[in-house]
Amino acid sequence: MHASSGGRLANSGANQSTNLPLPVLRNYLPNAYISPNTFTTYNKSILAFLHNPKSGGTSIKRCITTLQKLKNESSPVVMATNTASIITEDLLNNVSTPSHYFMGESVIGVCDRVGGKPCAYFTMIREPYERTISHYYFCRGGGPSWPPCNNTLEEFTLSLCSVLFRQLTLIVLCNQSRQGHVLSWQCDNRPMTIDYLPFDHAQRRPALEFILQNLENIFAVVGILEEFETSLKLFEYTFGEPFYQKCRSEHSNSGNYVINGAKSHQRRSSTREIIRDKEKRKLMQNPDIRRCLYEDVQIYKKMKEIFKQQEIIYNKVVHL
What we know:
With 320 residues, the chain is an alpha/beta fold. Helix content is 43%, strand content 14%. Strand 8 and strand 9 form a beta hairpin. Helix 4 (128-140) packs across helix 10 (269-284) and helix 7 (201-218) packs parallel to helix 12. The longest helix has 25 residues, at 294-318. The protein is globular. This is Sulfotransferase. InterPro entries: Golvesin-related_Golgi (IPR053259), P-loop_NTPase (IPR027417). It comes from Holothuria leucospilota (Black long sea cucumber).
């Protein structure tokens, strides 16, 4: 994956440079702290936030909406699994004008649809076992979720597996055709992901390695839930928008943990941590679940390294 100003679209299910089932990304800004760059470009870029569920992403989406209103920009475009194809098709056919903000779980690839304008992906991450546990109990407490959670935590985890890995392999397949004198794009209704491959590490491992090697190229900046305020400061410094100033009080986690039918609100951190640690140990002892979450664990480790590098460089710069 190489950054460029092009806005071409991948029309096949494989990255031709690697022969892997990965999106071909051409228009994005590399990590602002690790790559040589000028922050001027980032300050003028379209922002594309990848929402990894139960990783602080809802708070960031609320923050983006706050910033949009402050700047009097058009509303953020939400790219969910069921909207990514139609949004992509509209952008390709110039039916809609690119927003300054895109956000959602299916945002990967949108920067190649904005006519070559500077565009930056960013995200928030969370330790995968803890993210999965939070997702499960959020659902059990009545929160919206796919997949459903009318089963055990183990069954839920095995039905979900590596969410972030899946998001990073999303491809919206589109083809151009002529109707009379007019060329137009049509996109498949449902995006493709790595899940179209059999669950075989021999096939999935090369795709994972490719992603790990390119994370600091794909994301202009990454945040981490455990360091929420620091993440906001990094976003603010990178993009020149007041993420920290306006949104440091935004973060909340409204899910509920359920123990023997009784709800304990997540703000009771001691209870939450006891449950989480117990459930996490249980999940980690299951070899099928370790295999299931393997890709996201590796991506999290690499992204956490990137986060620490960003933090070190940021602290040096702001104290100059």
